[in-house]
Amino acid sequence: MAIYKRKDSPVWWIRFTHNGRRIQQSSGTLERSKALELHDRLKSSLWEQARLGVKPPRAWKEAAVRWCEEKHAKRDLKGDIEKLQYLDRFLGSLTLDEISDDVLELIIRTKRAEIIAKRGAKARPAATLNRFRALIRSILRRAINKWRWIDRMPCVIELEEENNARTRWITPDQARKLLAALPDHQRVVVLLALATGLRQSNVLNLEWVEVDFDLGEILIPTEKAKGKKPIHVTLNETALQVLRSQLGLHPDKVFTYRGLPLRNANNRAWRKALKTAGITDFRWHDLRHTWASWLYQQGTSLHLIKEMGAWESLEMVQRYIHASSKQRRQHARIIDVELGSGTKLVRDEVLLLTEDTVTN
């Protein structure tokens, strides 16, 4: 019998044999007509798969789970999981073939609106949106090339151009105002970031085992470093004072709040302090930009800044360093020296050049 009822279940059940294999499953419906319809579709689908080579539909959820299993050693797997949890609201009920251009557009449009609502009209969401696009594209490509679940991309996924030209740093005077406006537990982490150039994750997750007071160094191990290479940080007196102030507060973690490890630095207290200090368009990561800019403005070479900040290339460093107006004036005055450092000499030369041009 194609469909039947079990004593322990009110729904109809499906049962038939396909290529010698017994198929038996719940229809999930109380209506006999719908159960028969599902039975017929299931038999037809199995026939198409066997005779025509048609691939069975595979769920996005199944692909997401397999991706995480196969990428268990990926450095940013936690980030992938967070994105997949967000995407579940859009893709959780779909098969891979049902991920259309319209579905992708809905995801991007919704996420863009959320970012702008949170960060303001000046937000640049391209990079964040591209991370979502790239993850979806990578999973679909794996489903095509490795898992052989689908034959082609069900939608067009192109990354939008990212504006990486943003440059933001603050002056020492602004930094002092910001520090004064922060509560104690936030002030120490910001001060260490300004003193060392460490990324937020490395500051918040800093452990005492990574601090060597005798050598005056912090050693960020490979598994906690963005470039997957250990980071050696030479501590200046400011950094040492910050670290000493935290001794005895926690057996493992350096920075705490009310006895527990500090988990977040980019919070309401941070935003309130920025407002109090009159600093706009400034992110926590810009503290690292500020550290590099201050070093450069005091004559530190790009190569040394690259090494101290554990950047992978000089091009990356150049995005983060900015000359001060004072530094630019100092270098501009070099020309005064070359021209004789006399205003009259320069004026006479300009007049002479002008007269020659008119004469000719």
Structural write-up:
The protein has four domains: about 50 residues; about 90 residues; about 150 residues, Intergrase catalytic core (hpI Integrase, Chain A), CATH 1.10.443; about 35 residues. It is built from 15 helices and eight strands. It has a three-stranded antiparallel beta sheet, covered by helices on one side. The longest helix is centred in the first third of the chain and has 20 residues. The protein is elongated.
Please tag this protein with its features.
about 350 residues, mainly alpha, hpI Integrase, Chain A, 4 domains, 15 helices, elongated, disordered C terminus
Layout of SSEs?
Elements (H helix, E strand, L loop, with lengths): L2 E3 L6 E7 L2 E6 L5 H20 L8 H11 L6 H15 L9 H19 L6 H20 L26 H10 L2 H13 L3 H5 L6 E2 L4 E4 L10 E4 L2 H9 L10 E2 L2 E2 L6 H10 L8 H12 L4 H8 L4 H7 L4 H14 L4 H17 L1
Antiparallel strand pairs: 1-2, 2-3, 4-5, 5-6, 7-8
Helix pairs in contact: 2-3, 4-5, 6-10, 7-9, 7-11, 12-13
* Major beta sheet, strand line-up: 1-2-3
Secondary-structure arrangement, i.e. CATH architecture of the largest domain: Orthogonal Bundle
CATH topology annotation of the largest domain: hpI Integrase, Chain A
The low-confidence parts are: 342-347, 349-354, 356-360
> What do we call the CATH homologous superfamily of the largest domain?
Intergrase catalytic core
Share in helix: 40-55%
The rounded distance between the terminal residues' Cα atoms is 107 Å
